[in-house]
Design a protein that fits this description.
This protein is α+β, with helices and mostly antiparallel strands and 354 residues long. The protein has 14 helices and 9 strands. The protein has helices at residues 9-18, 44-59, 83-86, 93-104, 114-119, 124-138, 142-156, 223-231, 242-249, 257-271, 291-300, 314-324, 329-339, 342-353, and strands spanning 27-29, 32-37, 64-69, 72-80, 164-174, 189-197, 202-209, 276-283, 309-313. A hairpin with a 4-residue loop joins strand 6 (189-197) and strand 7.
Length: 354
């Protein structure tokens, strides 16, 4: 039986039995080295996910990492040391090599953060590399392009608006080099799919991935341009309701991350003269911290353009990929790494009983 095969109910007991001391999966600090704790600012989902990633880090044999505040080291079990050497945060060596190449060739305006990418098991940035790099390889073949297109049609296009025929390109951590003609800031796509329609048109699917994170609430770094883009720019302002544009103009609605993501996608569409575009968020179903923002954005989109923003659970996306690419073991490894919470739930339950 493979280590990540939980079809046999006893296998989860085998994994739990193989775990070390509970202290391996809890936080502590250098000034109170004997006091172990769960991070009290974590919500219920983040507590569970941090425990899961603590286990996954421990399974790689990576040493626990830390952050420093006022000369005190805070050790968090989802952090690793020397991940830039060991590759412990990635599902295979090929993804690790790609991550290293992106860091080595990082452009000044890109938002790839080395320590988070290599050493933070809880971060959505390495998660995006682990999920989308294998899809980059899949679309190198004609068959892979069409099969991934079918997956995205089933997930996003039940009303046949996008008319996806195949996915032509997959990208990760993308800020266009013509960003000055977009929002002129560092708003990025965590990933994107360029697709070809049944009529031969070209479109883009911009993807924001979240694991435990919440969408950023900070206003656009260039707010006047973002506001003008949303309320005046021909080809973009039409997607928002009159009431929505009014709220943006009077400051009742600030253009935080969720709105900037949509505006970036739409400016890319115009700049590249694409035929259609859509922005999606992929996050675990139990990460509900973004729901208010998601509902608010949906509310200010006109009926005609509500399809331009959609939310997909990470579980449903991964299950759809596994179903279509059943022979690609990497996606089952991804599910095990990020979404098999049973061990973490067992640990959390037992911690609370102590």
């Amino acid at each position: 039986m493979k280590k990540n095969d939980f079809k046999d109910p006893l296998s989860i007991n085998n994994e739990i039995g193989a775990l070390g001391n509970m202290e391996n999966y809890m936080s502590h600090s250098s000034n109170k080295p004997d006091k172990y704790y769960l991070v009290n600012t974590d919500n219920e989902f983040t507590k569970k996910a941090r425990l899961l990633q603590a286990v996954r880090r421990w399974q790689t044999c990576a040493e626990c990492g830390y952050i420093v505040k006022k000369e005190v080291r805070y050790y968090h079990p989802n952090l690793a040391l020397n991940g830039e050497v060991t590759g412990c945060n990635f599902l295979n060596h090929e993804i690790f090599e790609y991550a290293k190449s992106r860091v080595a060739n990082k452009k000044k305006y890109e938002t790839i953060e080395k320590n988070r990418l290599f050493n933070n098991f809880l971060s959505s940035q390495p998660m995006a590399f682990n999920l989308f790099y294998p899809l980059m390889k899949i679309v190198k073949s004609k068959e892979g392009k069409h099969r991934l297109g079918l997956v995205m049609t089933n997930l996003l296009d039940k009303n046949n608006i996008l008319r996806i025929k195949y996915i032509d390109e997959v990208g990760i951590e993308y800020i266009p080099d013509y960003r000055e003609n977009c929002l002129n800031d560092r708003t990025a796509m965590d990933a994107f799919f360029r697709y070809v329609t049944t009529d031969g048109e070209i479109g883009i699917i911009a993807i924001e991935t979240k694991y435990t994170d919440c969408l950023g609430q900070n206003q656009a770094s260039n707010p006047s341009l973002a506001i003008k883009t949303a309320t005046e720019k021909d080809g973009i302002s039409q997607i928002f309701t009159a009431e929505g544009k009014k709220k943006i103009l009077n400051g009742e609605l600030s253009l935080s991350q969720i709105y900037r993501n949509v505006l970036l996608t739409e400016t890319v569409r115009l700049h590249e003269k694409l035929d259609n575009s859509i922005s999606i968020i992929i996050a675990p179903k139990d990460n509900t911290c973004n729901k208010q923002d998601e509902d608010q954005l949906t509310e200010i989109l006109t009926e005609e353009y509500k399809y331009k923003f959609q939310v997909i659970s990470l579980e449903s996306f991964v299950e759809a990929i596994i179903k279509e690419f059943i022979d690609e073991e990497i996606f089952q490894k991804f599910r095990y790494r990020y979404l098999d919470f049973r061990t973490a739930e067992w640990l959390l339950k037992n911690l609370r009983m102590q």
